[in-house]
Amino acid sequence: MKKLYFTPGPSQLYFTAEEHLKNALKHGVPSISHRSKEFQSIYAHTVEQLKVLLNIPDGYHVVFTSSATEVWERIGQNLIENESFHFVNGAFSEKFFSIIQNLGKSALKKQVIEGSVVEVETVLIPESSELISITYNETSTGASHSQNDLDLIRKSFQDQLIALDVVSVTPSVEIDFSAVDTFYFSVQKCFGLPAGLGVWVFNDRCVQKAESLMNKNMSIGTYHCIPELVKKSMINQTPETPNMLNIYLLGRVAEDMNKKGVQQIRQETNYKHALLQHTINESPYLSHFVEKENNRSRTTAVANTTIDAKLLTEALAKKGLVIGSGYGTFKNSQIRIANFPTHSKEQIEMLSDQILSLNI
After folding, report:
1. CB of 312 within 8 A of CB of 350?
2. Coil, helix or strand at residue 323
3. What is the CATH number of domain 4-12+261-356?
4. CB 140 within 8 A of CB 113
5. Which residues lie below 8 Å from residue 147, measured CB to CB, with a gap of 6+?
6. How far is CA 218 from CA 239, 255, 271, in A?
7. Is 124 left (phi over 0), alpha (psi -120 to 50) or beta?
8. What pTM value is reported for the model?
C-alpha cells in the first residue's frame, strides 16, 4: 500500500520531486564539482526562483546551510554580541533560546503557554537586546503569529535585528520579509523535499553586524560565518561541498511553484485549512489545541484527542494515511496534520472523510 504522509516534517515529497530526482541522477548532478560552472548555474537558478517565489526584497542574501537548526547557532555567533530576546511559545522557539544560552550569551525571553502566541504589544524588550527572535509558525503546537505582529515589532524596535523562523509556513502564507532582517527555513516541510538543507536569508544590516563582531576579534564561526557565506554566494558557490542534489531539487520545485502561481498555492492552503478546521470541529475524537482561531496555523493543524492519539494514528495508517502525533509531552494526547503545498485539495478531503468516519 502506497502511503500518503501528512506528517509536519519530513512530509510528503512535492509531487514533481520524483521526476526532478530522476533527471538529477540521469545528468549526474550529485557527482559534479561544487566549483564547476554547472553548479554555479544550479545555485543561481535556485536563488533566482526563491527570490521570485517569496518576493525577497533587494539587498537580501540567500545562502545554504545543513538545516534550519544550524542557522540558530550561526545567528548566535554572527549577530549577537551579548544579548538576544526570544518570543517562546513551544519546543522550537525554546530550542533556539537554549542554543544562545549554550553559546555563553545572555538570552532573555517572553514565554507563554503552548497553544498561544506572545501578544507583541504587551512585551517590554530592553534596548540592550541586539536581536529579537520570533517563530512565525510554531510547528510543535500549531500556533502562529501574523504579519501585523511583525509590523508592530519592526515599528517599535527599529534598531534591533529581527530574526524570523518560517520553517513550516513559507511559501504557503504571504509574509512581507522587509519587516525582518533575517529569516530561515528548511526544505522538508512546505517545499516537500528530503531533509538535509537549510536556507538562510539576511540583509546587509546582518552582514555589517557580523563584520563588526569579527573586527572585535570575536569568534563568529569559520566556514559558515556570514562574511564567508556572502563571499562565496557572490560567485554562486558555497564555502564547503554542499548538498548539491537538494539545492538542485529546491530550485526545480520552486520553479514549479512559480509556474503554478504562489497566490494559487496560498488560496488552496486556505481552503484546506478551513476543511481541517471543520474536521476538528465535527470529530468526536478531536478538539482545537489553539483556542484563538486567528492564531491557528494554516499549515500545521494541531488537535487534542479524547482517546489515546496512537489509536487514531494507527487507524489512519491502516488506510495508508500517515499523520503526526503530538510533540514531546503531547505525544499521546494530540495529533498534528500538515497542510503543505504538496498536499492536494483532494488528498485533504479524503483525509477529512476518513477521520470523520472513524469508529474507535
Report:
1. no
2. strand
3. 3.90.1150.10
4. no
5. 174, 175, 176, 179
6. 20, 40, 49
7. beta
8. 0.97
176 is written with which cell numbers?
512581507
Please report, for the chain, how many H helices and E strands are present, in that order.
11, 14
Fold of domain 17-259: Aspartate Aminotransferase; domain 2 (3.40.640)
At position 67, the amino acid (one-letter code) is S
Q: Which residues of the chain are in CATH 3.40.640.10 domains?
A: 17-259
6-43: b or e for each residue (b if 16 or more CB lie within 10 Å)? bbbbbbbbbebbeebbeebeeeebeeeebeeeebeebb
Q: Which residues have C-beta within 8 Å of that of residue 231, sequence separation ≥ 6?
A: none
Report yes or no: 332 and 358 within 8 Å, Cβ to Cβ: no
Q: 126: cis peptide before it, omega within 30°?
A: no
* Confidence at residue 177, expressed as pLDDT on a 0 to 100 scale: 98
Residue 1 pLDDT: 79
Could you give the CA distance from residue 238 to residue 241 in angstroms, rounded to a whole number? 7
pLDDT at 333 over 90: yes
- Calculate the alpha carbon distances from 342 to 8, 43, 172, 329 in Å: 12, 23, 11, 28
Question: Please, where in the chain does CATH 3.90.1150.10 lie?
Answer: 4-12+261-356
C-alpha cell at 359: 469508529
Rounded Cα distance between 334 and 157, Å, is 36
CA-nearest of 14, 21, 45 to 265 is: 14
pLDDT 10s digits, 263-301: 999 999 999 999 999 999 999 999 999 999 999 999 999
pLDDT tens digits for range 145-199? 999 999 999 999 999 999 999 999 999 999 999 999 999 999 999 999 999 999 9
CA atoms within 13 A on the CB side of 181: 22
**190-200 per-residue burial string, b: 16 or more CB within 10 A, e: under 16:** bbbbebebbbb
Q: How many residues are there in the chain?
A: 360
| Helix, strand or coil, per DSSP, at residue 285 | coil
Q: How far is CA 60 from CA 55, 306, 329, in A?
A: 11, 46, 38
Average pLDDT over residues 321-347: 98
